[in-house]
């Protein structure tokens, strides 16, 4: 439904999804899964808001509760075959699914340690289409626990069958950012209606941007080529202006700023963590899909994140993401 307000049409996420379904961009099953995800995000938004308001509440638990909220919404959609969560050791086959059978991977509350300080946090998700082999295996649920892992690993080819990806940022406003493979759209939660309302269409990351977002506390642990890159960003050069450093320490907040203002966010590998910290399936791949759909890039320093073949559910990869010129500059330094 659209609501008239001061002369212009307001498009809610629900009505936007229905328009995409009518246009044949997504099918009814995916529409239902995406609606159930937006419902989970609304619930988590109010949990986070309350946690920030009522100090001392056990925030540590919030990521566990958020995982339950996400899982329950996906299960009750009846269209989700398997869920893989940052909060679950192994993927879970969903009994209640009777069609669609999508594989949904998510980090229900990324950056939750920031909640006590009211710093932005977010939910990140990716939706993969199941393949027949995987569906057949789920039917025969004799070895279900192994099936789920194999399904998620051999189905979740970010580059080929990641159908939709998005995040919900819980900040000064609650912003739902989504791509279904035809550009990137953002919706802001209007507390008056309790609805996500379309605010930006076909978002494009600026081709370059003089903001870099790295945790330089790890500088000594980085390899020399990366140190040279970071040192180069600090050199004022002929323009007389070096890059600016911005680091929130919450992937969703740092990424959203990069999506809108340009620049580069990086979480490199280092001497202590040889694959970096961020997870491929439910952090790096969804964010890279969004970045590419917005005309940017998502790289592990040498290749597209979306070309990486997952080997295990919680696999970590280095991540460099943002403006195409900035990511390509980084890749040249690391070559
Ligand atoms: P560090 C939060 O814990 C998180 O997973 C991301 O949201 C964030 O970008 C990163 O880790 C911050 O890690 O090591 O810089 O504190």
UniProtKB/TrEMBL annotation:
KW Chloroplast (keyword) present: yes
Q: What class of enzyme is it?
A: hydrolase
Q: Which positions fall inside the Fructose-1-6-bisphosphatase class I N-terminal domain?
A: 12-201
Q: Which residues form the Fructose-1-6-bisphosphatase class 1 C-terminal domain?
A: 205-334
Q: Which GO terms describe its cellular component?
A: chloroplast; cytosol
Name its pathway: Carbohydrate biosynthesis; Calvin cycle
List required co-factors: Mg(2+)
State the source organism's domain of life: Eukaryota
Q: Where in the cell is it found?
A: Plastid, Chloroplast
Q: Which UniProt keywords apply?
A: Calvin cycle, Carbohydrate metabolism, Chloroplast, Disulfide bond, Hydrolase, Magnesium, Metal-binding, Plastid, Transit peptide
- One GO BP: fructose 1,6-bisphosphate metabolic process
Q: What is its EC number?
A: 3.1.3.11
Keyword DNA-binding in the entry? The reply is: no
Q: Which GO terms describe its molecular function?
A: fructose 1,6-bisphosphate 1-phosphatase activity; metal ion binding
Catalysis performed (reactions)? beta-D-fructose 1,6-bisphosphate + H2O = beta-D-fructose 6-phosphate + phosphate
Query: Subunit structure, per the record?
Result: Homotetramer.
Give the family per the record. Answer: Belongs to the FBPase class 1 family.
| The protein's name in its UniProt record | fructose-bisphosphatase
Q: List the lineage, top down.
A: Eukaryota, Viridiplantae, Streptophyta, Embryophyta, Tracheophyta
- Which residues of the parent protein does this chain contain? 65 to 399 of 399
